[in-house]
Design a protein that fits this description.
single chain; Arc Repressor Mutant, subunit A; Rossmann fold; four-stranded parallel beta sheet; 12 strands; 17% strand; disordered C terminus
Length: 331
Amino acid sequence: MEFHLDRTSSIPLGAQLRGTIEYAITFGALKPGEQLPSVREMADLLGVAPMTVAHVYRELKAAELVYSKPGAGTFIADASALLGSSGAHLSELHQHLDALINCGILMGYNATDLGALVSNRFSERQRQLRKKTVILIGNFIDAARDYANCIAETLGEIAEVEATTLTSLKNDELLRQRVGHADLLLTFAHRRREVSQLMPGQPLLNISFIPSESTRRSLASLEPLTKTLVVSIFPEFTSLMTHGVERFAPHVTLVTVVHRNDPQLAELIKETDALVYATGAQDLISQLREGQISFEYRHVPDAGEIQRVVVPLLQQGIFQASNTGDLNENQ
């Protein structure tokens, strides 16, 4: 991806770079295992001191968002790997499956019969086990609840998903105590550090988000000559919103992307045909006149990642608890 810094902003350049990388991880522009430019390459690219880049990389490493390979460079971390590798568990599972298959063959079962048997027993086993508790920690409660609902749909019967905000977590000790009993916490990559400081030792996973279907559809439906104003709440998110609009509305060329605190915002809103606002900036709608259109640039949790990463983690926890006798039918 491309990296840019706004030298007219009051935000320190190092903070801008850190925020850009954190947001890129959250919204899928940087994938696990992807290599970042070296300290010197990034410094030359952005025109900043190598010390600034090195400090940012150290902060990201401390937040467990990146990792370093001596002599190879700095890479985006796989969040799920931070909660423990499943390789050993998978190997053990294969051994049990092989034993099941061998037994089934000896008893005359074919692959279809065994598959149906495993599926039925798996469903029954899940019903017998206690649901896990997952808490999504977001920025804005309405959006966080929507995210939690999306995650709950993907998880199904495995877990109950609740939502709260980082602000609430900071200000409510009783809430922190309740959140401390959750089986898994989910948050954005750029909030991971703050959440981990508030909830030390708690299982925590940062998940990826993608533009919602309604956002993609709304962007694609814009007329080519529509004067479009895109408003971001977080400065670090501005460049990613720009890339998103370019991706889903490449036919629209009259696009202006600004920050929520831009002093010219009110005037820009008056002149625009379409307002695309970040989650949390819906109050801007009140400034629109008749005939102007608007829609939220809304993200949703990446269901594929939830299915691929979160589900196995929760199931692993369920079966580990069951095997140690922590759960029983009376719970």
